[in-house]
Amino acid sequence: MHNTPVMELAEALLHPVTEKTNALIRVQKALKSLCSESTLESPDKVVAACRILEQSAPRTCGPDPDFSEFLGAVTEDQRERAGARKLAFGKELTEAAEREHMTCRLLTGEPMEFAVAPFTVTVDLNRNQASLVYARLPVSDMPARPDKIMGAIKKQLKDFDKGWASEDFFSALLEAYRTELFRTRKPSGERIEIVDLLPGVAFLFQNSRFRSEPLSGNYRSYGRFNMAWDLAALRRKGLLEQIGYRLNLGAATGSATQNKKNVLYIEEGAGRGQYYLSLWFTPVP
Asked: Are 180 and 196 in contact (CB under 8 A)?
């Protein structure tokens, strides 16, 4: 059966009408979602719905309605809700810290960062993600919930406590320093970059189980932030001189601080610290 002229005209009109109908359905769903309180409390969903409205062509919806005023209102609504969420979150985190006999202090509002000594906590409420930072190095990630954040802080502090005693760390660092001098054929007292000592120090941190069976399951994690913690503890406790040697730290200056992989930030107190590039040992007279 051949198409008649009427059928051909109908088919020609059907496609644009179908496109327009589908577009209107998408706009309808977007507007319907923005009528929901749960959507307005979810920034990602709001962004997705507004994107549909912004991309709707005038020929699809006609001259009316005009979404520009509505989209402006949504933007303002989201700004106010984001501010309210940040205030509520800051209050909840402060109260959670106080229950653990810790203090919480807001550092910046955007991005949202808090100081819960000795850590910095970065928070992204839109992604429901928080990160624990020490010595400007990432430690761990967790959901953006005060209880999860405080749990991560307590766990990491326990891990620090289960690490080296400062006296043992000093001895291990001296041994790693001597090994690196021998490997690079440098004389005693020569400066060595701190990051070059990290593999040797991490190996010395291992227990007898790893030494007898060096498998990943037996490895005790020891990273850059662990070394930064142990070095800061030596300074804090006044233990830079031991067993006849003094540990010296060489500050990173100028362009040396630009490549963060080659330097280590050592905390010197709340909000204070400095990047260091090298260290060396000298005999105590």
From this structure: yes
Strands 119-124 and 192-193, bridge-based pairing = unpaired
Distance CA 59, CA 70 (A): 19
Q: What are 274's strand-pairing partners? A: 266
Q: Do 153 and 167 belong to one domain? A: no
Q: Could you give the number of structural domains in the chain? A: 3
Distance between CA atoms of 105 and 117, rounded to whole angstroms?
9
Burial of residue 173 (CB within 10 Å: 0-12, 13-18, 19+) is buried
Average pLDDT over residues 80-84: 88
Do both 168 and 258 map to the same domain? Answer: yes
- Residue 32 domain flag: yes
Residues 186 and 254 in one domain: yes
**Does residue 60 have a pLDDT over 60?**
no
pLDDT at residue 61 in the model = 57
pLDDT tens figures, 226-279? 999 999 999 999 999 999 999 999 999 877 777 788 999 999 876 688 999 999
In terms of domains, do 92 and 113 share one? yes
Q: Does 172 lie in the same domain as 276?
A: yes
Question: Residue 100 domain-assigned?
Answer: yes
Residue 75 in any domain: the answer is no
pLDDT in tens, 151-173: 999 999 999 999 999 999 999 99
Largest Cα span, the chain: 109
- Cβ–Cβ contacts within 10 Å for residue 25, how many? 10
Indicate the residue type of 169: F
